[in-house]
Amino acid sequence: MRGLRTQCMRNTATIYWIRRDLRLVDNLTLVEAINRGGPVIPVVINDDIQCALGAASAYRMSMGFEAIDKKLRTLGSCIIYRSGNPVDVLTELVRETGAGAVYWSRLYDPESVARDTKVKGTLKADGIDAKSVSGHLIFEPWTVETKAGGFFRVYTPFWRAVSGRDVATPLPAPTKIPSPDKWPQSEQLSDWNMGARLCRGQSVLSQYLSAGEDVAQDILFKFMEQSVDCYAKGRDLMGVNGTSRLSQFLTLGEISPRQVWHVARQALMQGAADAEAFIKQLVWREFGYHLIYHTPHITSGNWSEKWDHFPWQEDEDHPHVLAWKQGRTGIPLIDAAMREIYVTGYMHNRGRMNVGSYLTKHLLTHWRIGQKWFEECLVDWDPALNALGWQWVAGSGPDATPYFRVFNPDTQAKKFDDGGAYRNAWIAEGQRNAPKTALDFYDAIPMAWNLWPDMRYPDPIVDLSTGRNRALESYKERTF
Q: Domain 305-474: which topology?
């Protein structure tokens, strides 16, 4: 009798709850749902966590949903869109469809963990097979330990601990997804209007974005063919295309980190020495999730409590903060990077380090203000890496840059933007024939900012030497 009941349960539908796993290749959650037997019903839930996404990342996620829905339809499936509390939505879908299981890809930020724990507990109490599956990371955070059995607080030993590990071969995409005889009712993705908060900037941002698994695959293999050989140097040169630009696809799960690992390792074995530098950046992402899992307070508070009483400037409406957001600090490298993020939803990593250092050190402004702005503007926003990056540059986090190190953006510009290609691409003032990239900034920003390309470029709001010395004096007054 038990075997018959188990077989009956296996033939019931499986609800596949899609979150940040918008792909078919190496999607273990989808494969497990198919292998369970019975129809598979993909669902996307517009819950409080999704509604709280920043304007740019929400719009980019909607593009990802459209792309994966299109691919699912080629296999006889589709996405069911529902809004509400996931416990209520999934319970109702189970009732409507007679599903016996709900599967989803595991996430690690504290809000998602709390939500998913509640969902799993409720469904299991109702006799539903509720399962979270790996796939967003290469190494689950609890599987990487120090020799003493604790978690890693520093990147380099973390890298050494995982660099020689065997990583399972990526799974192929399914060729068919069993569908139910009758599909549940679905909302329309367009009705969610996930790009609404971009206002007029949506039409500008859309010109710089592409989405979906096929795009990600193409970018990965072109990067390996054309750029990985000079990645170690090229990734720091701001005026050239020396990085992979895979971050937005990884954060939405449009490509598997496991696949990226294997492709990069293959390039390394074939003689591309710089591929190891690229793999280390992929593992930095793993390190961020290692920390967010073991120390979840990193997303909202200083990782090191020694910084809890540091006198940060915390007024988000301070004129210096507004100038920083608007790319009007009078420091060309800082302003170029801040305009790039507003137009494209992306910022060069060297730019991220510089604007972070400038905000937290030259302006002595709390890193949380920068973290919040990046969350609003980045299409590759990632809860772990955004928190880790800001605390790294501010000096308050694990494996941080020395707190007394203050980036000089003028020196950085000479070193990493010699000739000014990056700055000229994003700053229109003073150029007779400014490029489209620089002019697009004025079409994307709120009209209330009242900025125009023929305005005079501003004087520095803070002298770089004065700002640096002020920061160092503030650090001297406190023991870290």
A: DNA Cyclobutane Dipyrimidine Photolyase, subunit A; domain 3 (1.10.579)
Class of the domain covering 137-168+199-294: mainly alpha
The yes-or-no verdict on residue 2 having pLDDT over 70 is no
Q: Is the distance from CB of 79 to CB of 68 less than 8 angstroms? A: yes
Per-residue pLDDT at 437: 98
| Integer Cα distance of 69 and 53 in angstroms | 20
Q: What is the 3-state secondary structure (H, E, C) of 33-94?
A: HHHCCCCEEEEEEECHHHHCCCHHHHHHHHHHHHHHHHHHHCCCCCCEEEECCHHHHHHHHH
The H or E element containing residue 133 is: strand 129-133
SS3 call for 15: strand
Residue 4's CB is within 10 A of a number of other CB atoms, namely: 8
Query: In this structure, which topology does domain 2-134 adopt according to CATH?
Result: Rossmann fold (3.40.50)
Query: What is the per-residue pLDDT for 4?
Result: 29
- Enter the pTM of the model: 0.94
Residue 16's beta-bridge partner residues? 42, 103
